[in-house]
Amino acid sequence: xxxxxxxxxxxxxxxxxxxxxxxxxxxxxxxxxxxxxxxxxxxxxxxxxxxxxxxxxxxxxxxxxxxxxxxxxxxxxxxxxxxxxxxxxxxxxxxxxxxxxxxxxxxxxxxxxxxxxxxxxxxxxxxxxxxxxxxxxxxxxxxxxxxxxxxxxxx
Length: 155
Known about the structure:
This protein is 46% helix and 17% strand. With 155 residues, it is α/β, with parallel strands linked by helices. The longest helix is centred in the C-terminal third of the chain and has 23 residues. The protein is globular, with a radius of gyration of 17 Å.
C-alpha cells in the first residue's frame, strides 16, 4: 500500500476493552509482526499501552520492549478515566503519573521521538496544556542528556 500511495503509513496501537478468546498471539507480538512484515511505521500510543495492560492484565513494559524501536515515528500520550473497574482512554484528563513513568522508560529505551499529547474533550486552560507539554519536554531532554553523557569506565 505504501508503494501505491507514494508515502509512508504509520499504524497506531489502539485502546481495547475486550479480548478475543481465539487470539493466538498477544497484541504486542501482532503489532511488531505487522510493522516488520509491512515496513510501515508505528505511532506508539503509550497511554493505550498502559490502558490495555491495566484492563487486560499484561506487563506494559513487555509490550514496549517488543516494539521495533526503529519503526516508532511518533509517540502519543493522553489521559484516561476509570469506569466500573476499567480504564477508558478519554483524551479528557491529564496524563497519569504511571503513564509518564512508562513514557520515560519508553524514551530511555528508544531515544527521543516526536511526542503528541492528545486532549480532545474537557479541554483545560492553556496553562495546563503547557505544563503537560513541559513534562514531556523534560523527559525528552533528560533522555537526550543521559545518552550524550560520557561513559565512565572503572579501572
